[in-house]
Amino acid sequence: MRKILSLALLLALILSDGWTQEVWPGDVNNNGKANTVDLLFWGLAYGAEGPARADQNTDWSAQPLPTLWANNFPNGLNFAYADCNGDGIVNDDDFSDAIDDNFGLEHPPVTADFYANAAGAAPRLRLTPSATLVQEGAMVNIGLSIDDADLPIADFYGLAIKLSYTTNLLAGDDGPDFDLVENSWVDADESYVQEMYVDDGIMGTAELGLTRTNQLAIAVGSGDLGTFSIIMEDIIVGLEVDTFTLRIDSVLLIDQHFGRIPVIPDTTQIIIAKDTSKLTTLNHNLWLEEGDVELVVFPNPATHFLQISTSVGIEQLLLVDQLGRTEIIVDRPITSGNYRWYLNDRKPGIYWLQVKTTVGILSRKLVIAPS
Ligand SMILES: [Ca+2]
Ligand SMILES: [Ca+2]
Hints:
six-stranded mixed β-sheet, Immunoglobulin-like, single chain, four-stranded antiparallel β-sheet, about 375 residues
């Protein structure tokens, strides 16, 4: 009997709100996960006050919802969800003790965060590296900015992005650092702006959140939002060059009413070389992936000769052995077509062909077999 009653009660609770009547501290949008999108909701509710919870803590567990607050988010969710620690006010403690502390934790089912990536004519997030070709061990800064030349954003309130990057190429197995630009257009009115940046160097992922807190939007201005900084570690023996990629996978930019403004994300690549002087003749410092161009190397394994069939021009062809020793095979531009080189008496073993084409660099593993 008691079980039937509690089921009926649960059903009534679900029907009354359309969702569960529990607060998970840090999951402000109640989608099952604490992340930087919750920071955006927190920013909209910042400063609001309402009934406190009976049990005030920030443990990652279901907390009974208090009496509903006077305000709701535009999606209908009550502001009480933004009071993560349950003390009756939405302030910095809710961010630092719950959203930040419980970042990444989930209580399934996890539903969508509704990122709004754009394609075509839309404002654009830009990743601008200080260099695209560096020596191993070098430090590179990558500026993050919004380019709204095509479509000005008059109503910036907050931004949340998810990033991914190449693992194993950064010093200390760490992710990129991020520094927010101080006194930028984001807080041109000197309002309080909260930033949140979390990276996972093992997974190669990071999230950045940025929100205003005064319920007033601001127009996007010129200049960087912030800077990612990375130190390129030594590349592995056997490789002449390697490529670090930083990619914005998802972006959510909102106005002060949680209107989503679609934005085009960006990707940047930085080539790390043992000896950059060998690569400076490149027209495009772009690391090609398999399938980007038609370039066939055969036979492989090779014995007496090597034949290359290419659909694009080649500027330089390097043969790199497993100790990283490099030999230039072709040092002047050749056009598309079929070419043959004799291997003469090169030592059998595993090599890499570094092919600098007119559209980018690619690498092919090559085995030279005993003849
Ligand atoms: Ca959430
Ligand atoms: Ca609070």
